[in-house]
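Batch manifest, entry 17 of 40.
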Amino acid sequence: MVDDDRLVKSANVVHSATQLCEGGKSVGPDIVSLDEKRFCDMKTKTLYDFCGQAEDVGECWDNVNNVLTNGTAGVSAFGGGSLDRVLSKYSSAINWEYTWRRW
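Output type: structure tokens
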């Protein structure tokens, strides 16, 4: 399977990062659940909390910069280096909260 370099963000409660990460057969782009305040790396099926939560321990998701970080400014969980380098991981960010419609 080819790596998907898009990022999906959703505020809709039905778009659960937790369920996608724990789903054995789920595939697709990495997803950020604004409702859960969690990020799922779909390639590794690893779930991360947003930075700034009560117990920041280890790696966390920086939702402002769209980057996985270890909590130290400028150091990413994607192999170190500057945040500028890490931001290029995603070719685009899709905001589902703006495209969601009720029919």
